[in-house]
Design goal:
single chain; 228 residues; alpha+beta; 4-stranded antiparallel β-sheet
Length: 228
């Protein structure tokens, strides 16, 4: 059973988008700084005192991409509670976690949790539910792909997001499909997203789709969602 629920998990940076200087944008900033944003929910029956989130960044060929300043890839940030059972923490941002302009995606490796009662445990990524909690709005995201690949910001999901915004959203029937998908997708992921069979079933399907889209010219580079 999942111990944590993590969503809105993206890599990027704060920047100016023409309206706000704190807009969230995909990819490294001009200095190569990469930040991580995420929200999470406590699915345990204990109150969390501290939660240490450990991430690893990767480059375009899936090799670890260490920070040019700290010299290491896997690194972590500490969340300070308390966070009671069932409570959520929104929009946590770890700014400039790494400086490396080659970083293409970041994966959550594990979370080390310290509870208020003095106990602790390590929760691996396989025991984390990456679906969006019921009743929480994310503005629309590729929920199944994010669940399968473990991140909203990785080459595969960037490809699918581009296809959604640039192709599907350009027609009325494409927009109807998107709305239908976002009406039922979060519920499906909530029910089955934490299971191995669900990810194993969808990954080859999505891999094949992404490969075809890439061969047809859809890029897999950092991408900011387009409103439609």
């Amino acid at each position: 059973m999942a111990r944590l629920q993590v969503w809105d998990f993206t890599m990027g940076h704060k920047g100016y988008d023409g309206n706000s200087i704190d807009a969230w944008m995909s990819g490294p900033n001009s200095a190569g700084g990469v930040s991580v944003k995420f929200s999470f929910k406590n699915l345990t029956e204990k109150t969390i005192k501290y939660a240490h989130f450990w991430f690893t960044p990767y480059n375009a060929v899936n090799d670890e991409a260490p920070c040019s300043i700290k010299g290491k890839a896997t690194d972590g940030v500490r969340y300070t509670g308390p966070l009671a059972p069932g409570e959520m923490s929104f929009g946590n941002i770890w700014e400039n976690a790494w400086y490396n302009s080659t970083i293409r995606n970041v994966r959550l490796i594990k979370v080390y949790i310290e509870y208020m009662d003095g106990t602790d445990e390590s929760v691996m990524a396989s025991d984390i539910d990456f679906s969006v909690p019921e009743g929480v709005s994310t503005g629309g995201c590729c929920v199944v792909a994010t669940c399968v690949y473990g991140s909203y910001d990785c080459p595969e999901v960037w490809t699918l997001r581009r296809f959604r915004d640039e192709t599907l959203a350009s027609t009325w029937y494409g927009r109807a499909f998107i709305r239908t998908y976002y009406a039922i997708g979060p519920t499906i992921v909530k029910w089955f997203g934490g299971t191995t069979w669900f990810k194993n079933m969808w990954k080859p399907v999505l891999d094949k789709m992404v490969s075809k889209l890439n061969s047809n010219g859809v890029e897999d580079t950092p991408y900011n969602d387009r409103p439609w």
